[in-house]
Amino acid sequence: MARLKRSGKMETFSVSVSPETRARLREAAKRAYGGNVSALIEAIAMEAERHEAIDWLLDRVPPIDDATFEAFMKEMAGPKRKRSRRAA
Fold it and tell me: Where are the domains of the chain?
């Protein structure tokens, strides 16, 4: 597979990881980014920013009671579907 082209200015830097971690990064890059480990690293950095934003938000939101939480979880699960019976 051809290397993915990236636009914009790029910088090269060194990162030290164990051989096992390097192999995991390469495998993950093969599965999701055509083998482009740099693209995988960029995605990891973006995910870290999202996690920080969620943590920031959750630290500032007032707590909710158990009943409200259960109602929210029930709504997120969606309506229960009835199983259809198959004709014999």
Answer: 19-77
